[in-house]
């Protein structure tokens, strides 16, 4: 992503300095692909461009639960584009502008197909602004409800893996990270939270609405974007000098009593284990009724129904390193997120008077039957959040690796992985290669047994 921003600056320079076009040559413009080709979510993401920034402006009207929104995307064409797709299944579109000019568009299932008046040259920076209004609805699939989640006094967003399209048009591939700006207007008695840092709250307008601005300055996959609108008790503090902003719905006061202070404690503990915290703020949001699971929304996880316990906070914050900063390129590798976040819970217990990670491993290793029936490294789309195959066996894979390579290699490996892939994406093969390099061992048979066999590995 650092590279991408450099490319953005470079392309702007080229545009500014090439006022006189070269002699006309025939140029072929072709449509961008409708999906990024993920085996689990083939239509998620799109081909032909790379997003640098999302600017989300949204006005929320609790009466009828409606939004009136404009999302403006700044992107770089990766090919000569005659048209391109966005992922969007949100409310009615009124207008699509490309570089400020009205563009043709049509909706095709979860795809929004945009045809600009002129082709977009490979390497050029362009903007696409989509205006839409209506009542967003969550997306549902075998992994559950996701995206825009209604609450009794507003809404919050938890989009993993495929829900971003419920509330804003996106290149919703986990591999296309971008920075985000949020400007959310809501009636003055409601509070607005989002990812990143709050950069302003305006006064009430003639309708009594206030606009709150938030900025996520580090690259973020669209599924990790969130806003939360409603009545909240907000706490603000710092951890390691950066803002810690937590908020809970007043009805979740009991469940959220540790949220603020324990978030600070967990971030500090995890920074010691995993290396520098990857974002410029932290926090948490407790909202909703617990009908969807917690999610590691970047820099500020959301806890549906409030955190279940401190270990859930440890888990979601561990994802800031494993999942958010170091993202998966393909959903098949989801154990890289869930296995490590679950293992963080085991390490927390080990270092705070609880059972050792090895003891927790042994307890699960005794299990038989369906516990071992899926492949941890390729569980299938419907099972990508399977507690046994992905969370527990993912964490067991990490513990088994620790036993195999020893603590002197294992703990530096965690930091090297987080640092070396910071703000990027990675694959299981990348992890295997790094573990082999740092340990000097051939680990392919080990990882094959733990990740790609649907049976209990031998110790
Ligand atoms: Zn998780």
| Binned strand content | 25-35%
Q: Which small molecules are bound? A: zinc ion
Give the C-level CATH assignment of the largest domain: Mainly Beta
Cα distance spanning the termini: 39 Å
Computed structural class: alpha+beta
Helix content: 25-40%
Strand order of the largest sheet: 5-4-8-2-1-12-15-14
Could you give me the name of the CATH homologous superfamily of the largest domain? tricorn interacting facor f3 domain
Unreliable stretches (pLDDT < 50, length at least 5) are 1-19
Q: How are the SSEs placed, and which strands pair?
A:
Layout: H1 2-17, E1 49-61, E2 66-77, E3 84-87, E4 92-98, E5 101-102, E6 104-108, E7 111-115, E8 125-134, E9 139-141, E10 144-151, E11 154-158, E12 178-187, E13 191-194, E14 197-201, E15 209-220, E16 227-230, E17 233-239, E18 242-248, H2 259-274, E19 282-287, E20 302-304, H3 310-318, E21 326-328, H4 335-350, H5 357-365, H6 387-405, H7 407-420, E22 424-426, H8 428-439, H9 444-451
Parallel strand pairs: 1-12, 18-19, 19-20, 21-22
Antiparallel strand pairs: 1-2, 2-8, 3-7, 4-5, 4-8, 6-7, 9-10, 10-11, 11-16, 12-15, 13-16, 14-15, 17-18
Helix pairs in contact: 2-3, 3-4, 4-6, 5-6, 6-7, 6-9, 7-8
Bound molecules: zinc ion.
How is this structure best described in words?
The relative contact order is 0.09. The strands form 5 sheets. The protein has an 8-stranded mixed β-sheet. A 5-stranded antiparallel β-sheet has the order 9-10-11-16-13, with no helix packed on it. A 4-stranded mixed β-sheet has the order 17-18-19-20, with helices on one face. 26% of the residues lie in helices and 30% in strands. The chain is globular. The chain is built from 9 helices and 22 strands. A hairpin with a 2-residue loop joins strand 9 (139-141) and strand 10. The protein has 3 domains: 26-135 and 157-218, tricorn interacting facor f3 domain (Immunoglobulin-like), CATH 2.60.40.1730; 232-320, 2-Layer Sandwich (Zincin-like), CATH 3.30.2010; 328-451, Neutral Protease, domain 2 (Orthogonal Bundle), CATH 1.10.390. With 459 residues, it is of the alpha+beta class. It binds zinc ion. Residues 315, 319, 338, 341 line the site of zinc ion (ZN).
